[in-house]
Amino acid sequence: MQKNYYELTLENLVELLGKNRFEEALIIINDELSAPYIPADFEKNLQIIKNEINNKLKTNQKESHNMWGLNKVVDIMKQSLDQEMHLIAFDNLRNLNARKILNHIKEYLLSKDIKNEYKTFLLMVLIEQKLDENLVVKKQEKIININPANYNLKESQDFLKTLEFKLSNLVYDKDPSFFSICKHVANTYFYNIFPDFELNQFKIEDIVACIYLYSQNALGLEIDKQLNEKIDFNYDNAMLLLDKFKDLI
Q1: Same domain for 162 and 144
Q2: Mean pLDDT across the chain, nearest whole number?
Q3: d(CA 95, CA 216)
Q4: Cβ count within 10 A of residue 179
Q5: pLDDT of residue 32
Q6: Which of 141, 174, 214, 235 is deepest in the core (most CB within 10 A)?
Q7: Is residue 182 a part of any domain in this protein?
Q8: One Pfam family name from the record (predicted)?
Q9: How many alpha carbons lie under 13 Å from residue 22 in its C-beta half-sphere?
Q10: Is the backbone of residue 171 left (phi > 0), alpha (psi -120 to 50) or beta?
C-alpha cells in the first residue's frame, strides 16, 4: 500500500534525527505546523518529534559547553571532506560571537569546496546574530552580497512557502507521495540559492514547473506532456532552469 504524504514526512524526519540533522528537521516541522490545516494525529507526532529535538539540543548544548569554542568551530569549518559536521559547528556557533572569526567566515563563504547549503546554514546563524557586516557569498558562478543584520528572512521564507503552495495545488491531490518528492526538491533548491531570490526573467511558475519536471526525471517517470495545461509557465525558461538544476541539486 502506497504511503501518504504525512507518513513520508514523518519517515523523513526520523531519518534526519538519526543523522543528527536537527536544524533541517525543525525547519520542516515548523513549516508543517504553520500550514492552514494538518491532521490531528500528524500534528501530535510533529510536536512529539519537536520536543525530542529540543531536548536533544539542550542536552548537546550542556555537554558541549566546555568542548566547543571558536577554535574548534574554525577547525571543523576547514574540514571540507566532512561537511555534515559543519551543522554541529554552526549550532554551537549560535552561542558564540561569530564576529571573532569573521575572516574565516569570509573565506568559507567564498570557498568553491563548500556546498551551497552549508553556506546557507552559516548565513542563517549570522542573520540570527544580526551580524552587521557586508559579506560576499560565492555559489557556483554567482556572487552574492549580503549584510546579515539587514536581511529580511521572512521574505525568503515566503518564497519557499509560495513554491510549496503552488506545488501542492499542482500535485498533492493526485499524488501525495510525488508531492513529498517535489517538496524535498523545492527545499533543496531553496537552500542552494539562498539568500538570492531575484527571479529576473523567470516567473515563480517557471520554477514550479522545473521542480515538477526534475522530480519526474529523478524518479524515471514519463514526462507530463500536458503540464502546460495545468500551470501557466514559460517552457524555454523551465528548460533553462532544468539544465541548471543538474549542477545545483
Answers
A1: no
A2: 88
A3: 42
A4: 23
A5: 84
A6: 214
A7: yes
A8: DUF3196
A9: 22
A10: alpha
Identify whether residues 170 and 135 lie together within a single domain.
no
Our count of domains for the chain comes to 2
**Cα angle 98-103-107, degrees, rounded to a multiple of 5:** 110
Domain assignment of residue 1, yes or no: no
Q: What is the DSSP letter of 140?
A: T
Whether the link from the prior residue into 195 is cis, omega within 30° of 0, is: yes
Secondary structure (DSSP) of 167-186? HIIIIITT-HHHHHHHHHHH
Domain limits for position 88: 70-150
Report residue 223 as a C-alpha cell.
Answer: 514526462
Number of CB atoms found within 10 A of residue 156's CB: 19
- Which residue type is seen at 1? M
Task: State the residue for C-alpha cell 534526519.
Answer: 16
Q: Does 105 lie in the same domain as 127?
A: yes
Give yes or no: residues 90 and 160 share one domain.
no
The per-residue pLDDT string of the chain (249 residues; one tens digit each, 9 = 90 and over) reads 567 888 888 998 999 888 888 888 888 888 888 776 788 898 899 999 998 888 887 776 665 555 788 999 999 999 988 888 898 899 889 989 999 999 999 999 999 999 999 999 999 999 999 999 999 999 988 899 999 999 999 999 999 999 999 999 998 888 888 888 899 899 999 999 999 998 888 999 999 999 999 999 888 888 777 888 889 999 999 999 988 887 776
Q: Which of 125, 150, 175 is the last residue of a domain?
A: 150
Residue that terminates a domain, selected from 92, 122, 150: 150
Please write the tens of the pLDDT for every residue from 34-88.
Answer: 776 788 898 899 999 998 888 887 776 665 555 788 999 999 999 988 888 898 8
